[in-house]
Structure formats: C-alpha cells, structure tokens
Amino acid sequence: MNRSFSKMILSVILLFTLTLLVLLASGCMKKEELKTSTGIEPPNPKIMVDGINVPFLLGSYQWKGAIADVPQPLKLAEHVKPVNASPSSLLKVVFDYKPNELKLTAWATDGKLNYSQPIDGYEAMLPAEKGRCIYTLSGVWKEGRGEYVFVIDIR
Predict the structure, then answer these.
(1) Are 58 and 146 a contacting pair, CB within 8 Å?
(2) Burial profile 56-91: b = 16 or more Cβ within 10 angstroms, e = fewer
(3) Alpha-carbon distances, residue 90 vs 5, 49, 138 (angstroms)
(4) Most confidently predicted of 3-12, 31-40, 54-63, 107-116
(5) What's the CA gap between 105 and 135, in Å, rounded?
(6) 77, 111, 138, 149: most buried by Cβ count inside 10 Å?
(7) By the 8 A CB rule, do 70 and 60 touch?
(8) What is the DSSP letter of 134?
(9) Could you tell me the pLDDT band of residue 7, with boundaries at 50, 70 and 90?
(10) Which of 49, 50, 70 has its CA nearest to residue 59?
C-alpha cells in the first residue's frame, strides 16, 4: 500500500509539473505567436496604400478544421469603409505570420472580375483608371486559407 501511494503522489507531482511548464511556455509567447498557434481564424494582414491603413473584413476561411462561409465579396464589401488612393498607387500587405501563397482579386462594383493574380513580395500596383474597386486578398497557410475583403476608390 505504501508503494502505490508513493506512485500516486509521484504521478500527481509529475502532472502538476507538466501543467505548470505548459502554462509558463504559453505565457512566454508573443500574442501573435499564441494566436497563430492556437487560434481558430487565419491571421489578419495589415493592408496599406498611400501610407493609409486599409480597413478590411475577414471573408470565408478554413482554418485548423474551423470553417466560415460568409457572403460573396461584393455583398461583404457593402460593410467595409472605402479608402481613397491615387492612380497606380502601390498596395502593401504585411502578415506577422506569412502565408505560403497570396493572391489579389479585383472586382468591379457590377460584379465583373477585373483580374486575379498572385502577389509576390507582398506588393501590388493598383490600376491607373479611376473608380471603385472591390478586392479580395486570399492567403494560404499550412493550417488552412483565408480571404479578406476591402474597397479602394481610385481618384
């Protein structure tokens, strides 16, 4: 009986120590590291044009088994504040947790697809033509994929 009691005490101490180590390790992680390693949504980008942060909404995504299906980009864009930009401005995208693939899709307000292209170097040139354009930024990571919708008025 003394031996089984000792084993039980040793097991409790070992379990407590492991729990404490996990808690300490997660407490030492940066906020973004913790989010990308345990979150159920893909990481958010920082999108900029002409030095201005571009507001966006997270669209449909699949991330670590979680799935979110939201309205089409044109419908979602109705809820995003547009940003004004100069013709041929440079769009810059920054992710703390970089995707393996990144694609930019541009839609006219009537739903016509303008273009869809991979983004290399996290930068893309906006059109020279004036007008409103709805964009979908699509990223792919090992954990899944995510889409971000934003609106830019070229003036």
Answers:
(1) yes
(2) bbbbbbebeeeeeeeeebeebbeebeebebeeebeb
(3) 69, 6, 18
(4) 54-63
(5) 6
(6) 149
(7) yes
(8) E
(9) low
(10) 70
